Amino acid sequence: MKKKRISENFRKTSETEIYCRVNIDGNGQNKIVTPIPFITHMLEQISKHSYIDLDVKCSGDVEIDAHHTIEDLGWCIGQAVNEALLNKAGINRFASFSLPMDETLTSCSLDVSGRPWLEWKVILPNEKIGGVDSEIFQEFFRAFSQSAKMTIHIENNYGSNAHHVIESCFKVLAICLRNGLTIMQRNSNIIPSTKGVI
Ligand SMILES: [Mn+2]
């Protein structure tokens, strides 16, 4: 009987307080509470399309700005995902997808490599999206890639609607997480690296 790919994380600093729980082998059920409705909407997208069950309860110093809260959410969720992945035996590891959203097309390539890296080729057409400074979204993805220890390349190929551009980034990451973290039955005990460790 394999250990369940479930992890819980709690982080409290002077800026934010975040609880999160992930179940990699879920079906996309989620309960997200954050002080920023737009980021709640984005985290629901991640869960829904990755099939990772995600519970998040977050409060933060959003009276200063949303920066700390969004960055720390990325960090906490990424850390929980990394812990839940155990030794990563059997995972597909690599995933790549291009996601259309009306006029927008965004691509993601993912390697569950154990080596954090974010390439972010996304220019957001508006200064603010959902009441949030649009430059902060990159910090979410950077923090997530760092704590999840994944190599993530995201490129917005084209698109004019700022909501679509950023939402497509979250959705395409979700699809790559779904594909990259899924366990292949025929290789389910084998760690997908010639090093034998990820
Ligand atoms: Mn939307």
Characterise this structure.
With 198 residues, the chain is α+β, with helices and mostly antiparallel strands. It has a single domain (6-187), classed as Imidazole glycerol phosphate dehydratase, domain 1 (Ribosomal Protein S5, domain 2), CATH 3.30.230.40. 33% of the residues lie in helices and 30% in strands. It has helices at 37-50, 67-84, 136-148, 162-181; strands spanning 6-12, 16-23, 30-33, 53-60, 94-101, 104-111, 117-121, 128-129, 132-133, 151-158. Strands 1-2-4-3 form a four-stranded mixed β-sheet, with helices on one face. A four-stranded mixed β-sheet has the order 5-6-10-7, with helices on one face. Strand 8 (128-129) and strand 9 (132-133) form a beta hairpin. Helix 1 (37-50) runs parallel beside helix 4 and helix 2 (67-84) packs parallel to helix 3 (136-148). The longest helix has 20 residues, at 162-181. The model has no long low-confidence stretch (mean pLDDT 95). Bound molecules: manganese (II) ion. Manganese (II) ion binds at residues 41, 163, 167.
